[in-house]
C-alpha cells in the first residue's frame, strides 16, 4: 500500500497529538480506513473524551519534516521499504519511525537475521569483553546486531558489529545523542549502519520513552540476548517484549552474588536459552523460521465503515451493559452481543477515547472505574 503525501501528513498529525498511541491509532485506521478519514471523525470523538484530542496542524508537521530533512533523516512509515520487516508483525507496531543512516546498507540488513544484544549500563569488564566478542562473531556469521546506544553493554554491542552491520534504536529524537559520550559512535553507526526512533524530532530522552524503544528493539529482531542485567532493568523489559512477540530470548549466566547477574540468571531459570558463545545463538536462530510480512493492511483494505448514529448509540449501550471490570477478548464480546464486528470496533474506539472502556494485553477490553460513575 502506497501512502499519499496527504495521508502521511494526516497520520503524523494524529500521532503527534500526544494523546493517541500506536494501539489507538491502528484502531482508528481499522475503523475509518485512513488517517484522512480518521481526522474528520476526531471532532466527534473528542466530544465525550476525558482529554481533548489536540491535533497538530499541517504547518507544525511540515516544520518537523523540514528540520528532519535538513538534518539528513527521513520518516519511514509501516508501508515503506525501509521499515524493519519483523517489526510489522508485532501487535500495534509503530506507525512511523524516524530514520537516519545508510539506506542501501539498511536494505541489505533486512536480508539477514537480526539479533538484539542488550545489557547493563554499569557493566563489568568481563561482560564488556564478552559482548564485544559476541557481536563480532555474530557479525562475521551474517547477523546484524541491534541495540539501544546506551553506555555499557549496548556500546560494546555496537562497536563489535560496526564493520559487519549494526542498528541503533533511540529513546529520544533522532537528532539527540544520548549519552553524549557516544557521539562519535552515533556518527559511525549512521555512516555504516542506521539509527531509528519512534520519538519526534528534537525530543530529549524521557523515562516513559525507553520502554517504547525497548519494544522496537525486541520487535525488529528474531531474538534478544541479554549479557548482563540487574533486577528491574530495561534489558529485562526488552526480553519480556521478545517473549510476548514469540521471539527467542538468550542470557549469559553470571556469578550469583553479582547484582548485575541477577536478571540474566532469573531469565535462565524461567527458560531462556543459555549462551556461552555466538554459536549458541546461531544454532537457535537457524532452527527458527520467522514470518517477514504483515497482513495488517491487506486485512483492512476493503473496510468501508458506514454506520448510522442510531446504530452506534445502540451498540455503545449494549457494550457498556455487557462489559465489566474483568477483561474479555473482543472476539468474545462480538460473539456474545451478536453485533457486527465493524459496529463493535467503531463503538469500542469511541468508548475508549471517552475513557469508558480500556484495552488490555491480548486484545481484551473492560470497563474503567470512570464508566460506573
Helix percent band: 40-55%
Structural class by sheet pairing and helices: alpha/beta
Rg computed from alpha carbons, rounded to a whole number of angstroms: 22 Å
Largest sheet features: 9 strands, mixed
Spatial strand order of the main sheet: 1-2-6-5-4-3-7-8-9
Q: How many E strands?
A: 12
Share of β-strand residues: 5-15%
Mean of all residue-level pLDDT scores: 89
Low-confidence spans: 289-305
Q: Based on Cα principal axes, name the global outline.
A: globular
> What distance lies between the first and last C-alpha atoms, to the nearest angstrom?
43 Å
Explained architecture:
The radius of gyration is 22 Å and the shape is globular. A hairpin with a 3-residue loop joins strand 11 and strand 12. With 373 residues, the protein is an alpha/beta fold. Helix 6 (125-140) packs parallel to helix 7 and helix 9 crosses helix 10. It has helices spanning 5-15, 22-32, 35-46, 58-71, 103-109, 125-140, 153-160, 183-192, 209-219, 234-244, 262-269, 278-287, 296-300, 309-322, 330-337, 341-353, and strands at 74-77, 96-101, 113-118, 143-147, 166-170, 194-197, 223-226, 248-251, 273-274, 328-329, 357-360, 364-367. It has a 9-stranded mixed β-sheet, with helices on both faces. Strands 10-12-11 form a 3-stranded antiparallel β-sheet.
Amino acid at each position: 500500500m502506497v501512502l499519499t503525501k496527504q495521508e502521511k501528513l494526516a497520520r503524523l498529525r494524529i500521532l503527534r497529538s500526544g494523546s493517541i498511541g500506536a494501539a489507538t491509532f491502528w484502531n482508528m485506521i481499522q475503523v475509518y480506513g485512513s488517517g484522512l478519514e480518521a481526522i474528520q471523525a476526531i471532532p466527534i470523538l473528542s466530544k465525550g473524551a476525558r482529554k481533548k484530542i489536540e491535533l497538530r496542524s499541517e504547518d507544525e508537521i511540515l516544520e518537523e519534516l523540514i528540520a528532519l530533512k535538513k538534518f539528513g533523516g527521513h520518516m519511514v512509515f509501516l508501508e515503506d521499504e525501509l521499515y524493519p520487516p519483523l517489526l510489522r508483525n508485532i501487535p500495534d507496531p509503530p506507525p512511523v519511525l524516524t530514520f537516519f543512516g545508510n539506506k542501501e546498507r539498511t536494505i541489505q540488513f533486512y536480508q539477514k537475521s537480526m539479533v538484539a544484544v542488550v545489557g547493563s549500563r554499569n557493566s563489568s569488564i568481563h561482560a564488556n569483553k564478552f559482548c564485544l566478542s559476541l557481536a563480532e562473531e555474530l557479525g562475521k556469521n551474517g547477523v546484524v546486531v541491534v541495540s539501544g546506544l546506551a553506555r555499557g553493554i549496548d556500546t560494546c554491542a555496537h562497536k563489535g558489529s560496526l564493520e559487519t552491520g549494526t542498528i541503533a534504536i533511540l529513546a529520544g529524537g533522532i537528532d539527540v545523542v544520548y549519552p553524549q559520550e557516544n557521539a562519535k559512535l552515533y556518527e559511525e553507526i549512521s555512516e555504516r549502519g542506521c539509527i531509528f526512533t519512534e520519538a519526534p524530532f528534537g525530543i530529549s530522552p524521557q523515562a516513559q520513552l525507553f520502554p517504547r524503544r525497548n519494544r522496537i528493539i525486541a520487535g525488529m529482531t528474531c531474538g534478544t540476548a541479554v549479557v548482563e542485567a540487574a533486577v528491574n532493568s530495561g534489558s529485562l523489559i526488552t526480553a519480556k517484549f521478545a517473549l510476548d512477540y514469540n521471539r527467542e530470548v538468550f542470557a549469559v549466566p553470571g556469578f550469583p552474588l553479582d547484582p548485575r547477574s541477577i536478571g540474566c540468571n532469573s531469565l535462565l531459570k524461567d527458560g531462556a536459552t543459555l549462551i556461552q558463545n555466538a554459536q549458541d545463538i546461531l544454532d537457535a536462530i537457524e532452527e527458527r523460521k520467522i514470518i517477514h510480512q504483515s497482513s495488517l493492511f491487506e486485512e483492512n483494505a476493503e473496510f468501508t465503515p458506514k454506520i448510522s448514529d442510531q446504530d452506534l448509540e445502540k451498540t455503545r449501550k449494549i457494550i457498556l451493559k455487557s462489559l465489566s471490570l474483568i477483561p474479555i477478548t473482543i472476539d468474545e464480546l462480538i460473539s456474545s452481543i451478536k453485533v457486527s464486528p465493524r459496529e463493535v470496533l467503531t463503538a469500542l474506539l469511541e468508548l475508549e477515547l471517552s475513557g469508558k472502556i480500556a484495552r488490555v494485553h491480548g486484545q481484551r477490553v473492560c470497563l474503567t472505574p470512570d464508566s460506573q460513575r
